[in-house]
Structure formats: C-alpha cells, structure tokens
Amino acid sequence: MAKLTxxxxxxxxxxxxxxxxANAPVIAGxxxxxxxxxxxxxxxxxxxxxxSEIVSREIIGRAxxxxxxxxxxDPTGGFVENLPGYGEAxxxxxxxxxxxxxxxxxxxxxxxxxxxxxxxxALYARAKGLTVVALTCMAMSAAAASQHPSGKRLFEVxxxxxxxxxxxxxxxxxxxxxxxxxxxxxxxGCSILNWLMLAVMEWLGSNGHPLPVMRSQNLPGxxxxxxxxxxxxxxxxxxxxx
Length: 242
Fold this sequence. Notes:
single chain, alpha/beta, Rossmann fold, five-stranded parallel beta sheet, two-stranded antiparallel sheet, 8 helices, 7 strands, globular
C-alpha cells in the first residue's frame, strides 16, 4: 500500500478514536435534550457553510437516520459566508419558511469556526430559544481570528461544542514542498453526528417514545414507510418526502 495512504489511514484512525473519547460526554448530555424535543414533535436543524455543508447534510434524509432533520442550505455554497449580515438574512428566510421553534436544536458545522455565516446562524437561533450545538475544530478555531462583526467564534456562541479533533488546516499528511493533504473534518464530523443521532434514538427508545427512523428506499415498503413518517413534519423539512 502507498505510504501516504497508510499514513492517512493511521492518523485519521487515531483522530477518530480520540474524537470518540472527547465527545462521548457531550453526546451523552445532548441526547436527552434533543430527544425530548423530538419526542414532542420537534425537528433538528443543521447548517454548514462551504465544505462543512457536506457534514451538515449527512444526517438529512438519511437511510437509518431520524426523518425529522432539516437543513439551512446556503445557495452560494459559502462563497459569501463573510459578507456582513448574509448569514442572518439566510437563516431568517429559512425561519419564515420552515420555522425555528424554541426548544428545538440546531447543529452548526464550521471547521474553522471563525467565519461569519455560522456565527450568524448560531446567534439567531439562540435568540429564538433553540439549543445551539457547534461542531468545529477547536485546535484551529481557538487560534483563528473571527470574521464576524461581534469578534466571536462559533464555539463562543454555542450552548454545546463537539470537537472534530482535527489539526489547523485540516490536512494530516505531509506530501512534500511544504504542503499537506488528507483532510479529516468530513470523516470525523459525519461520524460524530451519527454517534449523536444514535444516542438520541437510544434515549427515545429507553423512554418509551417511537423512533422516527427512515429506511433505505431500496427495501420493500420503505418508500411508503418514509412518506408516512415525513407526513408528521409536513412543511417543516427542507427535504420533504411526498
């Protein structure tokens, strides 16, 4: 096997293991908070700007995931994430269409944690009474200057922080000429969100609540099952099954 590939496998695996140890207590604390909201009919909102949107979408409309997860999607792909006020306008428009309700949770994903739009979304949601969960890289964010007018970084405006345990710059393999490759934020970020969703499901089951879990549409009867689940949340999901 190629040396660079092996190096990435080993370093990413080690970071994943450390991320489990670091985030397990946070996930244990979050599971009942989100679980109670889901049990009451609430939804889980997600947001990620730029490449972090990939992580935020991992749990939206996901086979084996909760149906009640919805996403605040930036149509620019994050290209104007530091335009003053843009993130606030984006989340306000989403709120008018899908509703951000007090007591629900929003998961905001930003590897650097310094850009304006994720902070805008977090501040807006907190003002509306939602629980704000940040998924970020603390090693990078703690050393980065905020691009938000408040001077705050994402971890500083969140109620709970999940740390992907990555390195500044994200890439973990030196490839020569002073360059590094092999980013880990997507691999570990998606894992953390799936750990969280499973913890929420476990809380729901342990407390006698039904599990609104989607099935793969490739299984018999799954499409009908998923549509029936999604009907409970009609008008509240950015990816509505109909």
